[in-house]
Amino acid sequence: MFGFALFQTGYQITQQRRPLAVGGSFDYPLTRHQDKNLREKLQTARLVQLQLEQDSGKSLHDDELSVSLIDLNRAGLTLLRLALLMTFVIFL
């Protein structure tokens, strides 16, 4: 658990320290439009960890009106978070 201002409880439950899975990878197709043709290649995403946590809701900020609103409609729902290593792709 860690402090989170959006929750009415003041904290968010997460499996960050005890994830469901650690390491691994999966492939997904990366598509590019080129000269009215589609080119596709497989890209690999590297998984750091897979964890469950609670949706915290969302903050909505309006700078012009200087107001902030909190949307708690989804707060407390379970999320499956994929923590991935960043991969830069050069698609030629």
Concise synopsis of the structure shown:
The chain has about 90 residues and is mostly beta strands. It contains no helices and eight strands.
Detailed description of the structure:
By secondary structure, the chain is mainly β. It has one domain. 0% of the residues lie in helices and 55% in strands. Strands 3, 4, 5 and 8 form a four-stranded antiparallel beta sheet that branches. It has a two-stranded antiparallel sheet with strand order 1-2. Strand 6 and strand 7 (67-71) form a beta hairpin. The radius of gyration is 19 Å and the shape is flat. 1% of the residues are buried.
What are the salient characteristics of this protein?
single chain; 92 residues; mainly beta; four-stranded antiparallel β-sheet; two-stranded antiparallel sheet; 55% strand
The number of distinct β-strands equals 8
Regions with little confidence, pLDDT below 50 for 5+ residues: none
Beta-strand residue fraction:
over 45%
Coarse shape: flat
List the helices and strands and how they pair.
Layout: E1 2-3, E2 11-12, E3 21-22, E4 25-34, E5 37-54, E6 58-62, E7 67-71, E8 78-84
Antiparallel strand pairs: 1-2, 3-5, 4-5, 5-8, 6-7
